[in-house]
Each structure stands twice: as C-alpha cells, then as structure tokens.
Amino acid sequence: MLSKEDNELMCRTGRGSAMGDAMRRFWLPVMQAADLPAAAGEPKAIEVLGEKFIAWRDQQGRPGLFAEHCLHRGSSMQLARAEGDGLRCIYHGWKFAVDGQVLETPNVADPKFKERIKGRTYPVREAGGLLWAYLGAVDEQPAFPAWPFMAVDDAHRISAAAVVNCNYVQVIEGLVDSSHLTVLHASGLAKTNGVELDFAKKTTHMQFDASPTIEADETDFGFHYVAIRKSGANRMARIASFVAPCFVANPNGDLWFAVVPVNDERCNFFHVWWSNEKAIGEEPLRMQQLAFVGLDEPTLTKYGMTAATCDGEQAMSRRNGYRQDRAQQRAGHWTGYDSFTQEDAACSVSSGALRDRSQEMLSAADIAISRLYRSLLACAKAARDGQQIPALQADVGKVVGTFGEIGPGEDWRSLVPHHKIVSGKAAQAGRV
Ligand code: FES
Ligand SMILES: [Fe+2]
C-alpha cells in the first residue's frame, strides 16, 4: 500500500517531476529501430515521458530525435520537409540536422546567425533492435548501457513492442509477480505442453504450483526476485532481475523487458528475446514466437495495442468490456483473451489509467511488488533531493534472469553469481 503522495511521486514522469528527472538520467529505449522512418523518409511523431518528439533518419541513415516544436517559433516538426541532410520547418524554412546543427535560416540575412544557435535534438543510439535516447541534462549523460542482447546479430534477436494504456508501474508489477502466471495465464500455459518453442519449454512447469514461495533481495541495480515452486523432490527457482528504473530480465534467461512511459497513462512495453545459438530473428521462428505470446501485429492491432491503434475503438476500455471474449471464456478458456500479452494488459489497464495504491491489500505473494515501490521511490527521492540515483552506476551487462532446480538445502542465490545485497534484510520470505 502506498500513500497517494508516494504513488504520485512514483508514477508521474513528466518533465520537472521527481521520477521524470530520475528517468531522464538513464538511456531509455523510445521505439523499435524498425519503426523509424527509412533514410530521408517522412518524420514520425512519438511521445516519451509526456514529451513530444519527432524521430527521423537522414539520407546517411543517421537516426535523430528532435523536440517536436521548431526552435524558432514552435511549429511542429512533424510537418517539416524531409530534405536529405536535415528537416526543414515549413513555416520559415529553418533547417536542422539530426545532431542539432542549424543548417539554414533563410529568413535571417546574417549568415553567421545559424552558427550561434543549436537545434533541439537529443542523443540517440541504435542498439539491440531499439532506438535509445538520452533525454537528460547534457553534462549528466551516463555511459551507454551494454545489455547482453546487444551483442548478438540481428538474426539472433527478436524485438517487439506493445502499447499499453496505463501507467508504466502497473506493467512492471506484472513482470515481478510470478504467482499470477499460474492463474491468469492458465490456458496459455496449458498450451505450452509439447510446443517446440524455447519459451514454451521454459514456462510449462509453472502450471503446477499456484502458490510459489517468493523472496526478494535488494541489489545495486534494483532487486533480485525469486519464485520457488515444488518440482518433484527438488524445487524450481525462477529468478528475475528488476533494474531501476524500468527494466526486467525475465527468469527465462533470454528475455528482457523495458517499460517506458509514453505519458503518465500510457506506456511502451518493449520485449527482446535473444539466442547465441539459434537465428530466432528469422522466419518462421520469429513469427511463431510473437504469435504465441500475442505480440504479432494482427493481434496487437485487434486490441488497439500499437501506436497507430491505441486511441481507437478497439483499444481496451471499460466501455467495451476491455475486449474480453466471454463466449471464448464460457467455452472453457480461463480469461477469454488471445494470449499472454492481452491477459496482462487487460489486468493492468482495467485497474485504472493510474492505479490508486492507497486501497490495495498486498499479501506475502507481493513481496516483489513492495520491493518495486521501494526501488522506484528511492530513484524519485534521490532525484528530488539531488542525491546519487541508485542503479545509475550498475553494470547491466552482468544482470541476468535465470531458472534452475535447487536441492532441499540449497540457496537460490547460488544461481546468480553476481548477486550482491546492498541494504535491508537479506531476504523476506513468505508462503502464500
Ligand atoms: S517556426 Fe519553424 S522556421 Fe519559423
Ligand atoms: Fe503475465
């Protein structure tokens, strides 16, 4: 449970908010690289942390992220002419390169004027199939993160993004909440039996124990979170890593998430799978994987979970019953949704665009949820009070999610060699 004040502090990420300031200290994925316009193509409008931007590639293929409003007198650069080496505002013709250089100011006679000013652009990098941006103060830019999936070839990686119409924290909660898997995704997990996809093989055991033992340890990057389920004489431990402020390494070991606020009531939910051995990014493996979890384009579009459809009639809402298929449910399906992604989204969205946490009743199954609140609030408060932001110095290349069997007396921490508790109690355990 959180006070209304702390809830606001944790959830709101607009410019000038404490959490917004904290988030702007990190490199964040802002869109899939594949969704960027082609070289010298039309500029594309996006929103991140409640701010509007224009994404574009110049004729050399260099990506750029521009503040939406023209430096001169604020017309939208969404209207700009794409002219190869820069974007030209249609109002008075000022032209800007992707690095912020002002190339032309045709309504100003002084040819030196353009050299004294700089366009509003932000540092961007393409890595791991995503476009990353740094939206914070220039002198505080951190090193670019080296997440493990960035090291593999594109053919060995699948990235996908879903738009979810609720605050980002609600989506992250679902990622550190193992006990919902056996219940909410019961029908999906039942379908994993005998399926050849790695994802199916790694999750199929979860259908057999609905009340795992949950523990969480605070670490330098956020927290490690384990769900331990009975597995014959032994126990199966699934360990996720939450990396502040919005990243999760899934216990499957080959799946990573980022949940980046679009604004306070909408977020981009990025997924990346990667494999050193298999070319999972090539068809048909890629599409099989995406379709299995409901991240294929037709399914996302059906539920209004793409940038183009998230404001449309098909988006989940109270008015349309969150697009639940009651006939499918009566026919035996647990939820009446197409797949995992839609089930998670329905629960997150239906709890409110920005959930009130002063009314909730957490249980022992929710230890990681409390940890999440604590970790996020630590970031927000550090930013607000001018302190060092936890996790900013963490080496994310070493962060893993993992799972494995542990013997009767064995500690789950042996599965995460880099585990380092930074403060608080070593563990909080509970049986639901
Ligand atoms: S408003 Fe863009 S050039 Fe004047
Ligand atoms: Fe889920």
Strands, helices and their partners?
Blueprint: H1 4-11, H2 18-23, E1 27-32, E2 44-48, E3 51-57, E4 63-67, E5 81-82, E6 87-88, E7 95-96, E8 102-104, E9 121-122, E10 124-127, E11 130-134, E12 157-164, H3 168-175, H4 179-184, H5 186-190, H6 198-203, E13 213-218, E14 222-231, E15 234-243, E16 247-249, E17 255-263, E18 266-274, H7 285-293, H8 297-302, H9 326-330, H10 340-350, H11 367-384, E19 402-406
Antiparallel strand pairs: 1-11, 2-3, 3-4, 4-9, 5-6, 6-7, 7-8, 10-11, 12-18, 13-14, 14-15, 15-16, 15-19, 16-17, 17-18
Question: Explain this structure to me?
Answer:
Helices cover 20% and strands 24% of the residues. The protein has 432 residues and is an alpha+beta fold. The protein has two domains: 27-140, Rieske [2Fe-2S] iron-sulphur domain (Rieske Iron-sulfur Protein), CATH 2.102.10.10; 148-415, no CATH class.
Task: Identify the notable features of this structure and list them briefly.
432 residues, alpha+beta, Rieske Iron-sulfur Protein, 2 domains, 8-stranded antiparallel sheet, 4-stranded antiparallel sheet, 19 strands, binds FE2/S2 (inorganic) cluster, binds fe (ii) ion
